[in-house]
Amino acid sequence: MIVALFCCSLSDCKSQASFGTRHLRLIKTILLPEVKGRIDHMDVNLKDQILYVAALGNNTLEVVDLHDGKILKSIKSLHEPQGVGYIPQTGEILVANGDNGDCYFYNSRSFEKTAALPLHSDADDVRYDSVAKKIYVGYGDGGVSVIDPETHKQIAVIKLPAHPESFQIDKKLDLLYVNLPNAKMVGVIELGSMKVTGKWERTQPSANYPMALDSIHHQVFVGYRNPARLIVFDGRSGKEISNINMAGDADDLYYDVKTSRVFVSGGAGSIDIFQRQNDEAFKQIASIPTRNGARTSLLIPQLNLFILAERAVSGKPADLLVYKVME
What we know:
Layout: E1 24-32, E2 42-45, E3 50-55, E4 60-65, E5 70-75, E6 81-87, E7 92-97, E8 102-107, E9 113-118, E10 126-129, E11 134-139, E12 143-148, E13 153-159, E14 167-170, E15 175-180, E16 185-190, E17 195-201, E18 206-214, E19 219-226, E20 228-234, E21 240-245, E22 250-256, E23 261-266, E24 270-276, E25 282-289, E26 296-300, E27 305-310, E28 318-325
Antiparallel strand pairs: 1-28, 2-3, 3-4, 4-5, 6-7, 7-8, 8-9, 10-11, 11-12, 12-13, 14-15, 15-16, 16-17, 18-19, 19-20, 20-21, 22-23, 23-24, 24-25, 26-27, 27-28
């Protein structure tokens, strides 16, 4: 790489030119001409290469064929869809609605609604554990609902001190890590007891929204917005390992185990990529310019793809930028 930033501690970079653009190659732009407002989370049907996009401000779920670059369906009459998950064993799509708190299930072929599960308020991020066959949905003023995908019933509730944002599951440690920005902490939940057993508290930086996990090194990557920092924690002890400047207003970040890289999409106008150097050090290898407000994304390592959602602004329609991840 041509340019590298400090990776181990507290260096700040107020502005920088783009660099490392060769790490992502734009291969396709998919227009979403009818989508207005904020775009939230995405998920993918790997087998059929179908992308599901929660268009929160549009109250729709956009179903997109990644291979052909076409919109297959726009599921309407949703209520601020935030989280989405594809359940391959049942062939269903789950949509978590922030406005009314309901989780809707849809048949992924016919797009007919198959079930609805009320979670009272602010249903948000979704994770599916395909091995244990459990769906996790963050919601309300402090809870994660555990749902049986076969029966569409809630089978347990993890109680939290504040609304959960992004969360990750370390299967080997049997732990769930969850961002709780209103409580100024990362919560650690023991899945056996489904109780909070650890609290990684800090006042600065604040506004921890996106999160990723390296399940091999048992490291948790947390993105803070104020100021914009990427902090890497030891998943066992909660010890801070690395503290790095990153893209502002980030809503998604990912760790790619194949390349040992972290990808961050920031609404301030860039995709930042960090490369692991050793067990504790990372360096920034790319800052790729994007449209302001484009802060939601999806890394699909099985397809070597990185998808960035750009909301409609200043007369430009909403779209999806499909990048190929390069070595």
